[in-house]
C-alpha cells in the first residue's frame, strides 16, 4: 500500500499554509479595496436590501476588516484570529450568495473556496515565513 506518491515532498509541507495565506491575504485586500471603490454602490444596495442601515457604515466596516485582516494574514501576524474572522465573514457572504445570487458579483464557488481556505488556516496556522512564529 502506497501512502504518498511523493513522500519526499512532505518535508516541505510547512509551505502549504504559507501559500494559502498569501492567496487569501492578497484576495482579501483586493476585496476590501473594491468595496471602497468600484463596488461600493452595489454593496450599499446589498446592505440596504437586507436592512442593515446605515449601509455605508457596514460596507466601510467590512472593507476595513478585509484590508486589515488581509494584511495580518499576508504577513502571518495573528493568523488564526484573522482566519476565524474571515471564516465568519465568508460564511455570511456564502449564505448571502446562496440565498440571492443577483446581490453579489462573485459566484457561490468563490465564497466556498475562500471559506475553505480561511477554515484551513485556523487549523494549520501560519506556516512558513510568518510573524506568528516570533510572537
How confident is the prediction overall: mean pLDDT?
91
Principal-axis shape equals elongated
Number of beta strands: 0
- Report Rg: 17 Å
- The proportion of residues forming helix, as a percent range, comes to 55-70%
Q: What is the count of DSSP helices, taking H or I runs of 4+ residues?
A: 5
First-residue to last-residue Cα separation: 41 Å
Q: How would you classify the helix and strand content by structural class? A: mainly alpha
- Major sheet: size, sense and barrel closure? none
- Total domain modules: 1
Low-confidence stretches: none
Strand content: under 5%
Order of helices and strands: HHHHH
Q: Could you walk me through the main structural features you see in this protein, from its secondary elements to its overall organization?
A:
With 135 residues, the chain is an all-alpha fold. The protein has one domain. It is built from five helices and no strands. It has helices spanning 15-36, 40-49, 55-75, 79-99, 108-124. Helix 1 (15-36) crosses helix 5 and helix 3 (55-75) crosses helix 4 (79-99). The termini are far apart. The mean pLDDT is 91.
Overview features:
mainly alpha; 5 helices; 135 residues
Task: Write the SSE topology.
Layout: H1 15-36, H2 40-49, H3 55-75, H4 79-99, H5 108-124
